[in-house]
Amino acid sequence: MTHTPLDPAGMAVMGTPNYTHAMVTEGVSKWLHIAGQVGVLPDGTTASGTLAQCRQAFANIGMLLAGAGMTRDDVAHLRIYLIDRGDILALRQARTEFFGEDKVIPSTLILVSGLVLPEWRVELEIVAAR
Q1: Average pLDDT in the 67-90 region?
Q2: String of b and e for 41-59 (b: at least 16 CB within 10 Å)?
Q3: What superkingdom does the record give (predicted)?
Q4: DSSP states of 97-115
Q5: Rounded mean pLDDT of 6-25?
Q6: Structural domain boundaries of the chain?
Q7: What is the DSSP letter of 82?
Q8: DSSP class of residue 47?
Q9: What local confidence, expressed as pLDDT, does residue 36 receive?
Q10: Are 113 and 83 in contact (CB under 8 A)?
Q11: pLDDT the model gives residue 80
Q12: What is the C-alpha separation between 105 and 47, in angstroms, rounded?
């Protein structure tokens, strides 16, 4: 199975780290759709601060990928919900920590007025394919 970024000539260059407009996935035999993950720790409490919540949401995704016999390399799409535009840098830091500098993923970032619990600042959805 291969994931190939797709950024054809003539499309705008977004200048966003780890971003591609699309991903062509070939040879797929298994898909994983992960429901929105937030910064909830294993004990059920919410991590304190945006960066900590982003890191925990990615850690939760990592556990779900592993549970499905998959890795970060299998991620084909990321959807992000943030409640504050000012949290984008924290999100990018946590994303780079999780995926590394060179992993590009098509993603959608949506600013929302709130999430289910008022202390939640970020929610992440992932689609993976292997």
Answers
A1: 96
A2: eeeeebbeebbbbbbbbbb
A3: Bacteria
A4: HHH-SS--B-EEEEE-S--
A5: 75
A6: 2-8+24-129
A7: E
A8: P
A9: 92
A10: yes
A11: 98
A12: 25
pLDDT of 23 > 90? The answer is no
Q: 2-8+24-129 has which fold? A: 60s Ribosomal Protein L30; Chain: A; (3.30.1330)
Per DSSP (E only), the strands in the chain are: 2-6, 22-26, 31-37, 75-82, 107-111, 122-129
**Contacts of 88 by beta carbon, 8 Å cutoff, 6+ apart:** 82, 109
- Mean pLDDT for the chain overall: 91
Place 104 in a pLDDT band, splitting at 50, 70 and 90: confident
Residue 36 burial (10 A CB sphere; 0-12, 13-18, 19+):
middle
Q: How far apart are the first and last CA of the chain?
A: 6
- Quick one: tokens of 39? 């910064």
**What pairing do the DSSP bridges indicate for beta strands 75-82 and 22-26?**
unpaired
